[in-house]
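Hi, here's the filled form for the chain we discussed.

Project: internal
Contact: R.S.
Residues: 179
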Amino acid sequence: MIVLRHCESEFNRLFTATRRDPGIPDPPLSDHGQAQARALAPALGGQNIERIIVSPFTRTLQTAAPLARALGIRPTIHPLIRERAAFSCDVGSPPARLALAWPELDFSGLDETWWTAGIEPPEEVEERAAIFRAEMCASPVWQNTLVVSHWGFLIAFTAASMENGSWRRIDPTKPLPAI
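And the returned structure, exactly as it came back:
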């Protein structure tokens, strides 16, 4: 499978410059992040992707959109792969608002508040990652799946830090390397 960290968001852009939380809930991609997302279609187009699973945050949805259009794949929304709650950007949008922005996607499986309130302990993120890993291992098409997620979740899922817009192939059936 391929895991992809969302492209640069407005939160990432501002936080990188100031090292302070800029107070932006569910931020969109920055201009640079939008360019990164557009570049994913040629970069990943030949990777035999048959399924795209995406976190319900705006930045992951915007990251997945150009590639999904190019491949003719409707992404599946999966709140389990959301970011570890720690900053303002980790407050999501209600399903009705997301459905207005992406009417072609199905948000009906989301709770009204699907994100984690407050700061999420690392153990809870690791538990979510283990549950998702088990789901992927049980899937007959995990090899052809793209997962669009977040820094904190992907650390728990892959045991590696990833930059915005970066991707890598992993085998969820193999044990995680020691951190």
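Let me know if anything looks off before we file it.
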